[in-house]
């Protein structure tokens, strides 16, 4: 080892960190939780997590305030779940209740997208974008700002209840509660006009369900993000238990490369002087100290690991101080790891000797496998992506080609028909015209078939006829009571029924309904 590197080894601080949540030391659920005080990490993955946190929180808190002009007959909130009107608005897209399959398809896409991401880069969702991860990161920012970094928080937690400790704890928990209130408040704004609801909420004029929802989400955000933290991921979340089915030997996961790190040594200089074999790991516990899950990645793959990669940042910082190559902890595939381990152990015939993976100059030999980004685009991932993309294209095509006008007809059940004084038969129908655009339409309602039949619409133009022009309100359902009458001498025409046609001449949209006409059985 180079003398300069040996000298630097002595300057690396060893952190007293213990992997309290590792499987080998974890106790049953009913044991009192041992607190984790993660140290703040610095590096490219930590910066990427900051970026994801800002983007996701920004989307969540700001989206209800984005305006989108849909005209005077529709709300101007860009994203709105209007339960009263039974509509879902998403910018230029409007979903009616009977079109809920689009929302279901989007949820299926999201689930399949999770499979796609996991098969390619492991639990990246858990480590970067999961709401639990994002809010825990946010709560940790507040905790570090008030109580200090890891060592200061540990001293404060172990110390007596002084005025300073009480003030800091009250301030921290008060801000956590405010974040919970903001989280619940942002959620209810997705279900009503945000500015109007905010005004009624602060003046205590909002519906009780709004206050109840905010209270529930405040409590869950505070408990999950502030108090339970890693316990939610370890005990409550089902994804760690099923994600293994999505992984294969070429999936990227956070890996401790023991083929170059072992044997560990806290005193590399003394070990080198005695001729001992020394790996790159100096057993500083930096990777354990920054882990928000309280595990030691050097124990191998674990259910608790969310692949946030903060241990990579911590280890890379130590390697930089020692003048050694980064990547002792890295994103790696099982196939690459196994090949390098076989190289360091002579095909598993001997103990790990990191000298087998290096040349005389200390550089890695050519046989050592390194990360190749092309491994992401393998057959399995491309197949997942193709299915996911086809689902998305199907939804887009369905949205683009769907009708924005529909006709619904329901025959009266009681009575099914009425015999009038002149012997003619009359049937009643409830007709609903669905105008799914924020513009008024003139719809022509016409009978086709049963040539002798006449139609009358209650509340519309007086008299009977076979065709009527109906004014339909924008973005609403217009309900009509329609009566169809067949003269006594032409009752045989009822056997064939008739077709009710609703047509919009301006947009050329048309919908049909094949209707039955009930009458008394003919006399024999």
From TrEMBL:
GO CC aspect terms: plasma membrane
Molecular function terms, GO-annotated: 4 iron, 4 sulfur cluster binding; metal ion binding
Chain coiled-coil ranges: none
Top-level taxon of origin: Bacteria
Segments forming domain 4Fe-4S ferredoxin-type: 273-300
InterPro entries membership: 4Fe4S_Fe-S-bd, 4Fe4S_Fe_S_CS, Cyt_c_oxidase_cbb3_FixG, Electron_Trans/Redox, FixG_C, Helical_ferredxn, Ig-like_fold
Membrane spanning stretches: 48-68, 88-117, 173-190, 210-228, 381-400
UniProt keyword annotation of Transmembrane helix present: yes
Keywords assigned by UniProt, alphabetized: 4Fe-4S, Electron transport, Iron, Iron-sulfur, Membrane, Metal-binding, Transmembrane, Transmembrane helix, Transport
Protein name: Cytochrome c oxidase accessory protein CcoG
Species annotation: Rhizobium fredii (Sinorhizobium fredii)
Gene name for this UniProt entry: ccoG
């Amino acid at each position: 080892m180079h003398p300069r590197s040996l000298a630097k080894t002595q300057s690396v601080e060893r952190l007293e960190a213990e992997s309290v949540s590792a499987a080998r030391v974890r106790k049953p659920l009913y044991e009192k939780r041992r607190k984790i005080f993660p140290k703040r990490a610095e590096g490219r993955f930590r910066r990427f997590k900051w970026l994801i946190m800002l983007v996701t929180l920004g989307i969540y808190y700001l989206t209800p305030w984005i305006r989108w002009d849909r005209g005077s007959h529709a709300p101007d909130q860009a994203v709105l779940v209007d339960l009263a009107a039974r509509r879902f608005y998403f910018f230029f897209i409007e979903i009616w209740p009977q079109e809920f399959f689009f929302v279901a398809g989007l949820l299926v896409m999201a689930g399949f997208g999770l499979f796609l991401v996991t098969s390619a880069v492991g639990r990246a969702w858990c480590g970067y974008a999961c709401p639990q991860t994002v809010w825990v990161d946010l709560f940790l920012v507040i905790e570090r700002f008030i109580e200090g970094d890891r060592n200061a928080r540990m001293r404060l937690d172990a110390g007596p209840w002084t005025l300073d400790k009480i003030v800091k704890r009250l301030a921290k928990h008060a801000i956590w509660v405010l974040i919970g209130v903001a989280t619940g408040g942002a959620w209810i704004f997705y279900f009503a006009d945000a500015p109007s609801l905010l005004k009624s909420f602060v003046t205590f004029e909002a519906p009780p369900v709004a206050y109840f929802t905010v209270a529930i989400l405040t409590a869950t955000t505070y408990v999950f993000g502030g108090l339970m933290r890693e316990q939610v991921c370890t005990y409550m979340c089902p994804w760690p238990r099923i994600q293994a089915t999505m992984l294969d030997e070429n999936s990227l996961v956070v890996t401790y490369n023991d083929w170059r790190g072992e044997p560990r040594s806290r005193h590399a200089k003394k070990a080198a002087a005695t001729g001992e074999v020394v790996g790159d790991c100096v057993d500083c516990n930096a990777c354990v100290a920054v882990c928000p899950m309280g595990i030691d990645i050097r124990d191998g793959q674990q259910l608790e690991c969310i692949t946030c990669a903060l241990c990579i940042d911590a280890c890379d910082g130590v390697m930089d101080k020692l003048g050694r190559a980064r990547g002792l902890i890295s994103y790696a595939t099982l196939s690459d790891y196994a090949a390098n381990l076989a190289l360091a152990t002579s095909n598993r015939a001997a103990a790990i000797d990191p000298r087998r993976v290096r040349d005389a100059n200390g550089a890695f030999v050519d046989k050592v496998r390194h990360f190749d980004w092309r491994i992401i685009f393998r057959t399995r991932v491309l197949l997942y992506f193709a299915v996911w993309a086809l689902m998305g294209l199907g939804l887009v095509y369905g949205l683009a080609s769907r009708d924005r006008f529909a006709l619904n007809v329901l025959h009266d059940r009681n009575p099914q028909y009425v015999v009038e004084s002149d012997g003619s038969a009359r049937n009643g129908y409830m007709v609903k015209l669905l105008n799914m655009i924020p513009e008024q339409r003139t719809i022509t309602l016409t009978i086709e078939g049963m040539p002798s039949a006449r139609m009358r619409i209650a509340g519309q133009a007086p008299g009977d006829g076979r065709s009527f022009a109906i004014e339909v309100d924008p973005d609403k359902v217009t309900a009509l009571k329609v009566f169809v009458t067949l003269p006594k001498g032409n009752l045989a025409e009822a056997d064939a029924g008739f077709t009710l046609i609703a047509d919009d001449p301006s947009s050329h949209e048309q919908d049909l309904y094949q209707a039955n006409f009930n009458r008394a059985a003919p006399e024999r």
